[in-house]
Amino acid sequence: MIHIEDADTPRLSRRALITGAAASLAVAGCTNTERRLLPAEPAGPVLSPKDPYYLSMYGPMPEEKFPVPAVNLRRVDPIYYRQVVDYATSERPGTLVVDTPNRFLYLVQENGKALRYGVGIGRAGFSWGGRARIAYKRAWPRWTPPADMIQRQPELEKYRNGMEPGLQNPLGARALYIFQGGKDTIYRVHGTLEEWTIGKAVSSGCVRLLNQDVIDLASRVPNNSPIVVIQGGAA
């Protein structure tokens, strides 16, 4: 959705576990994309924007329909770099869990592990939470603002019938569409070029990831995967 800058939210524990039900936000991603080979994952706990592993992970993606530039990792808190973490949960592997208070999205894996991504979340008053599913994914999707958003922001009228895909499109490189009870929630998990927004509450309801991360996530998540969005008091 349209990105509106908001006050930075406090940074919380990188190991915070999420428990509860109800949440704020939405979708990412599309067609399966072959994941690129990366250097061996660093063994130590120190994350650095100079580490070759992360420079490769967040490097340019010229093979995309709209070539994706490298992320300026100095503008992203290293806690939000993509990484495998210990994760205790009763959710089955393959489930997406959005931890709204701590600004993380977890893809649950086997053996008490999860692949964790940093996210930006919806601003207070534009939040959604609960259990749903990823009905489908799109690569380089069109973006159509909801009617109530156009009413609040008349300058979006020109996009009533949709905005063409591209780097400046608010949905970024991939969008995952969240449905609940057979109905579109209007919330998405999607990509962004605005790396400084990761870890903050800045968007009108949706969950945003770095384009490199949402491309990776979309390649791992099949249609109809379950998603749980956990909403907390820190917004």
Automatic annotation (TrEMBL):
<dbReference type="GO" id="GO:0071555">
    <property type="term" value="P:cell wall organization"/>
</dbReference>
<feature type="active site" description="Proton donor/acceptor">
    <location>
        <position position="190"/>
    </location>
</feature>
<dbReference type="GO" id="GO:0071972">
    <property type="term" value="F:peptidoglycan L,D-transpeptidase activity"/>
</dbReference>
<protein>
    <submittedName>
        <fullName>L,D-transpeptidase</fullName>
    </submittedName>
</protein>
<dbReference type="InterPro" id="IPR005490">
    <property type="entry name" value="LD_TPept_cat_dom"/>
</dbReference>
<dbReference type="GO" id="GO:0016757">
    <property type="term" value="F:glycosyltransferase activity"/>
</dbReference>
<feature type="active site" description="Nucleophile">
    <location>
        <position position="206"/>
    </location>
</feature>
<keyword id="KW-0378">Hydrolase</keyword>
<dbReference type="GO" id="GO:0008360">
    <property type="term" value="P:regulation of cell shape"/>
</dbReference>
<comment type="similarity">
    <text>Belongs to the YkuD family.</text>
</comment>
<feature type="domain" description="L,D-TPase catalytic">
    <location>
        <begin position="94"/>
        <end position="230"/>
    </location>
</feature>
<keyword id="KW-0328">Glycosyltransferase</keyword>
<keyword id="KW-0961">Cell wall biogenesis/degradation</keyword>
<dbReference type="GO" id="GO:0018104">
    <property type="term" value="P:peptidoglycan-protein cross-linking"/>
</dbReference>
<dbReference type="InterPro" id="IPR050979">
    <property type="entry name" value="LD-transpeptidase"/>
</dbReference>
<keyword id="KW-0573">Peptidoglycan synthesis</keyword>
<keyword id="KW-0133">Cell shape</keyword>
<keyword id="KW-0808">Transferase</keyword>
<dbReference type="InterPro" id="IPR038063">
    <property type="entry name" value="Transpep_catalytic_dom"/>
</dbReference>
<dbReference type="GO" id="GO:0005576">
    <property type="term" value="C:extracellular region"/>
</dbReference>
<comment type="pathway">
    <text>Cell wall biogenesis; peptidoglycan biosynthesis.</text>
</comment>
<dbReference type="Pfam" id="PF03734">
    <property type="entry name" value="YkuD"/>
</dbReference>
<dbReference type="InterPro" id="IPR006311">
    <property type="entry name" value="TAT_signal"/>
</dbReference>
